[in-house]
Amino acid sequence: MTTDLLVGRELLQLYAARTGPTQALRGVDVTVTGGRVIAITGPSGSGKSTLLAVLALRERPAGGELRHRGRLVSAISRRDLQRLRRREIGWVAQRPTHSLFPQLDARAQLTQMAHLRGVRWDVDAALAEVSLTDRAAARPAVLSGGEQQRLAVAAASVGPPALLIADEPTAELDDESAALVLRLLRARAAEGTAVVLATHDARAIAAADTVLRLRHGVLSGEHDAGQERTATIDGLGRVQLPEEALPLFPGGRAVVTVVDGHVELRPPEQP
After folding, report:
1. E strand spans, 161-217
2. Beta-bridge mates of residue 71
């Protein structure tokens, strides 16, 4: 039985800039369900990392509604949010060292995460799962970038958490390391964890159950594995066309025709 862990409606996020407030998210709807892997894609600056931070409860949205297990996040105190993140959410930052304790070796990283989550965890099996058995006594500073990333994902997976969020977890990895990370993420999803990735990596996208595409802070499309790609339509009837379709409408205008239940878009005739 699947469970909606997070439901976001019309999510808005603002950041201060020299020219005034900048909208990083502009009315995004998203549902995060246990046991599934969601890949969030889009160009740099499209809002992927911001959406991850909101879903990980590291940032409160500036507008819209976000619910965790049906409870409004805006009604949860800062202390309870901190406790919720520690117990239920695994986080892998884009730079893996930002997700690790610099003073702890690989085995101690996982032991500490198990302690923070209040669970018993087979640390040796977890290290073996990401091919780090022979690096168990190594601290992050002496690990390679790929080893750091695998360790960060293994640490975030301890519990397992209800939600595991990773920002570009395979971007810098060779095929072998990427396969290990994606296999681990799929294994956690099979155990009921909701997994959300921000990624440009075709390997990670192919491993996802659902792909969400962001552009300029707006959800421009989504599809489930094996299904047709769909465009999103907001409450005002605005359609987000896929990026490859935009050159067909150089003037930013389209003629819309509705015939027999079908909608046709075509560029206006040029004078």
Report:
1. 163-167, 194-198, 210-215
2. 68
Q: Where are the domains of the chain?
A: 4-235, 241-271
The 3-state DSSP class for residue 165 equals: strand
Tokens of 117: 């989550």
Rounded CA-CA distance 120/44 in Å is 39
- Structure tokens given for 160: 């397992």
Digit-coded pLDDT (tens) for 227-245: 555 555 655 455 656 566 6
Average predicted confidence (pLDDT) for the chain: 89
pTM: 0.83
Asked if residue 160 has a cis previous peptide bond (ω within 30° of 0), the answer is yes
Phi-psi region of 268 (alpha: psi -120 to 50; beta: other; left: phi over 0): beta
Give the SS3 label for residue 175. helix
CA separation, residue 106 to residues 40, 87, 111, 228 (Å): 29, 20, 9, 42
CATH architecture label of 4-235: 3-Layer(aba) Sandwich (3.40)
